Amino acid sequence: MTSLSNAERLARGHPLWAEIDLGAIRHNIRLLTAAAGSAEVMGVVKGYAYGHGNPASAKAMLEAGATRLGVARVAEGIHLRESGISAPIHVFTEPPPEAVATIIDHALTPSVYTMDFARALSDAADKRVASIPVHLKLDTGMHRVGVPPEEVLDAVAELRRLPGLEIEGVWSHLAVADIPDHPFTKRQLDLFSELSDAIEEAGVKLRYRHIANSAAVLSLPASRLDVVRCGVACYGLWPGPAFVGVVDLHPVLSLRARVNLAKWVSAGERLSYGLNYELARSGRVLTIPVGYADGYDRRLSNRGEILVAGRRFRVSGTVCMDQFMVDAGDVSVQEGAIATLIGSDGDERITAEEI
């Protein structure tokens, strides 16, 4: 578990903190590796490891059996390389042309789905006398990025003509794998298989095919192929409601704060902006130093719950930019008590899904 000590937090004047359980990441990766069978596991660490922190999260995944990593942006890949990570790092999105040399210099594995980018990559590779493994992204129906099916063989032919590029793999992304038995998922898998076979029939030996995300790893054996790309499940989050409890995933993140004020407020008084919460009886009101500037959504006003001393309390009134209040009734809670926004306290747990 990585976190600042209480003394360090107080010294920095920061009463809100996240605790990241790297042991839980390793546990989850081991489960996903077992589920993946013979396929390699790619730990997806884009978005600063879904907000959980890189490179510590990435290193924990590799320690537990992941063999490669996935990021969205070149800068994320550079950060991992500069931390000493040598495993393959896949960049899911084509960057601006200015970043092409950086991809090569840091041995990142780029996705390709436009010929303009492919040509820029080839030019840079040719100047460095380098061979760059690329993964061709196929659009099987999600329509975010990828080569349309009718253009795939032409794209492959052009890639094969470009010096310095090696088509190492092909990949695509499932749009509704989190909804079990959705017919669109089978359509995507069938199309991906057809396009992959056509590419090989055109003379390209594909080393890697990958389309499975967290949901598919847990529910669709036919999708696992050579590599599986695991995102939310690495962090102990469920790909969708239908997956809750299918394996023993451990939540990785806890979010906690210290109560910065506890005061007695009379019955009939109202709280926070808009005065939309009225105390039905006199009681202790807690001020929690967390707000929407910290990502605690204002829509949790009068709805969200937190844990203090192992008990649940409702957010009372409007969530402010950096504070909200809780009506604790007659429960004795003092300044400095720990409030849990996500995580466990005693027998109670608030999950990220609940938030």
Task: Put the structure in a nutshell.
This protein is of the alpha/beta class and 355 residues long. The protein has helices at 6-11, 22-36, 46-50, 56-64, 74-82, 100-105, 115-127, 152-161, 183-201, 214-219; strands spanning 16-20, 40-44, 68-71, 89-91, 109-112, 132-137, 165-171, 208-210, 227-230, 253-258, 261-265, 270-271, 277-278, 283-288, 305-308, 311-314, 324-327, 338-345, 348-350. The longest helix is centred in the middle third of the chain and has 19 residues, at 183-201.
Summarize the topology.
Elements: H1 6-11, E1 16-20, H2 22-36, E2 40-44, H3 46-50, H4 56-64, E3 68-71, H5 74-82, E4 89-91, H6 100-105, E5 109-112, H7 115-127, E6 132-137, H8 152-161, E7 165-171, H9 183-201, E8 208-210, H10 214-219, E9 227-230, E10 253-258, E11 261-265, E12 270-271, E13 277-278, E14 283-288, E15 305-308, E16 311-314, E17 324-327, E18 338-345, E19 348-350
Parallel strand pairs: 2-3, 2-9, 3-4, 4-5, 5-6, 6-7, 7-8
Antiparallel strand pairs: 1-10, 10-18, 11-14, 12-13, 14-17, 15-16, 15-18, 18-19
